[in-house]
């Protein structure tokens, strides 16, 4: 199936906007930042976010060149961070590094939460 055929079928059969289909195709239906599949299961599918690579608060617009597909966790960690770089790819790489640092902190915190809850529940 060609990308154009996919876009047409996604619009017709699923009610997707062409933009959503193109963002999915561009990212391989994975989070642009952490590369987690966004079609693995219902939970991953339900975490799709349309993210502004350069946040609107930093002057980023709604054009597709400034949009990426992101999972919920990466989008929340990135927040209003405005990635550095001259090209889109450089900005994605910078944002991915920033998010990876935030993920490590979040995972460390979650390990503490899980240990405490496990101790409580026995």
Description of the molecule:
The protein is mainly alpha-helical and 122 residues long. It has one domain (3-121). Helices cover 55% and strands 7% of the residues. It has five helices and two strands. The protein has helices at residues 3-14, 18-27, 42-45, 72-78, 88-121, and strands at residues 49-52, 67-70. A two-stranded antiparallel ribbon has the order 1-2. The relative contact order is 0.12. The mean pLDDT is 94.
Give a brief rundown of this model.
This protein is mainly α.
Poorly predicted ranges: none
Instruction: Classify the secondary structure makeup into a structural class.
Output: mainly alpha
How many runs of DSSP E, i.e. beta strands? 2
Distance between the termini: 52 Å
What's the average pLDDT? 94
Largest sheet: 2 strands, antiparallel
Shape type? flat
Strand content: 5-15%
Keywords:
122 residues; mainly alpha; two-stranded antiparallel ribbon; 55% helix; 7% strand; flat
């Amino acid at each position: 199936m060609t990308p154009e055929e996919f876009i047409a079928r996604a619009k017709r059969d699923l009610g997707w906007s062409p933009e959503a289909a193109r963002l999915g195709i561009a990212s391989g239906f994975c989070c642009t930042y952490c590369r987690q599949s966004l079609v693995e299961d219902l939970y991953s599918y339900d975490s799709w976010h349309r993210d502004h690579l350069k946040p609107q608060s930093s002057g980023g617009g709604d054009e597709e060149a400034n949009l990426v597909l992101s999972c919920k966790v990466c989008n929340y960690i990135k927040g209003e961070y405005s990635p550095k770089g001259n090209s889109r790819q450089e900005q994605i790489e910078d944002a991915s590094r920033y998010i990876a640092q935030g993920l490590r902190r979040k995972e460390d915190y979650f390990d503490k939460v899980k240990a405490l809850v496990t101790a409580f529940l026995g």
